[in-house]
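Listing S7. Sequence submitted for prediction.
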Amino acid sequence: MTTVRHLPYGEKAEQSYDIRLAMEEATRCLLCDDAPCSHDCPAGTDPGRFIRAIRFRNFKGAARIIRQNNILGASCAAICPQERLCEKACSRTGIDHPIMIGRLQAFAMTQENTFKMKVLEAEPANGKKVLCIGAGPSSLTVAAELAKLGTDVTIIDENEKAGGMLRYGISPSRLSDEVLEQDLDAIRDLGVKFDMGKRVAKADLEKLAKEYDAIYVGVGLSASKMIPNLKGTDLKGVDTALNFLKRARSSKGNIEKLGRVVIIGGGDVAMDCASTAKQIGVDSIYVSFIETMETMPACKKELDYIVSLGVPVMPAFKPVELTGDGHVKSVKFVSMDGASCMELAADTVIFAVGQKATDDYFGLQAHDNIFIGGDFAYGGKTVVEAVKSGKGIAMDIAKFLRI
C-alpha cells in the first residue's frame, strides 16, 4: 500500500544535515584542486572551497565563503537545482554518487543562523547613492555587492515584503520565510535600506535618475503568461500560478475552497502549485504538461515530492479547451502525438506556463545611469542565474561610479 505524506502548509519536506551527517558527507569530497563543482555554479558560490572548510570543521569559514560569493546562499541551498549544476559536475559521480552539495550548503547556512555569525563587513562609505527597483534576487544581489563597497543603497518594491519571486512565487515548503529572512538580514547588516509598498513606474525613472548616482531596474517577470487562443480562459475558477501562490502565502494557506484542481505546466512553479494545493487540503489535483517526463523543466526532486504526495502527473498532453457555463467545469486535452484525448473535471484551473515582464516596463533599455538586469532583461531562469546577473551588473555600476 502506498503511503501518501500530508505536510502542514509551509512545513519543510527535507531537513538539513546535523554536524555528524555533514561531516560524513564532507569527508566523501575528493578535495579536487580545480573543483568542477565550483565551475558549474552560475552564481560562483564555490562549493569546492566551502566543502573543504566544512571538512575541517571551519563552519564559520564555510558560511563566509558562501556569503562572499552568493548573498542569497541560504535560499539557493533550499531551491537551487543542484542536481543539474554543481552536483552533476561532481568528480565523485564517477565513483558512486555526487556529494550532496545543496544539503552541505544548507548546513553551513544553518550554522550561520544558529550561532548568529556575522561573516561580512562593508567597506567605509564611498559617498555614492544607488536605487534598486524591485526586491527580487537580482536586485538583492546588486544591492549587497554595492553595499559591500561602501555604497548607500536603497531597495524599493511595490510588495509589502522583500524577496520577489523568492517570497511570492515559491512554496514555503521549499523556501520558508525564516530562511529567506536570514538572507535579507545579511543584506540589511551591510547597510542596505528597504522601502516597501511603493511602486515606481517607468515614467518616474528620469526624475529618480537625477536624485541617485545610479539606478538598477530589476523588476523581474511579475506577470503571468497564458496560452494564447485557448478557449475558456475567461471562465471563473481560472487562475495563474503567481496569483495562486501569492494568495496562499499571504493568507498562510487559508484561502477559499478550490474543489477539483487541474494545474497546467511542467516546471518548478507548477510543482509548487501542486504541493501548495495539497498542503492546504485539496484532495483532487492533477498536473499536466506538454513535455515528456524526461524533458519536463521541473527538478526531479520537486517532481518526486509531488508524486510522493499522491498527485497524478499527466505528461505529453496539451490543453485544447476549458469548458463551463460561467465557471470552469473541465479541461479537454489532446496528446502531443494526436493519438489520445483526455478530459479532466475541474473547479479550479491554474496555469503555470511561464512569466513575463509587466507592460509598464516593456521596452525599457539601459541608458545614462540607468541599468537593467535579472530575469527582466534576460528571461526567467534560476535564482542562481539571477545572482550571476546581479553580480555582473554590480561590477558594471561600480565601474561607472568609479568605486
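Caption to Listing S7: primary sequence and predicted C-alpha cells for the chain studied. The two ends are 63 Å apart (CA to CA). Confidence is low (pLDDT under 50) at residues 1-6.
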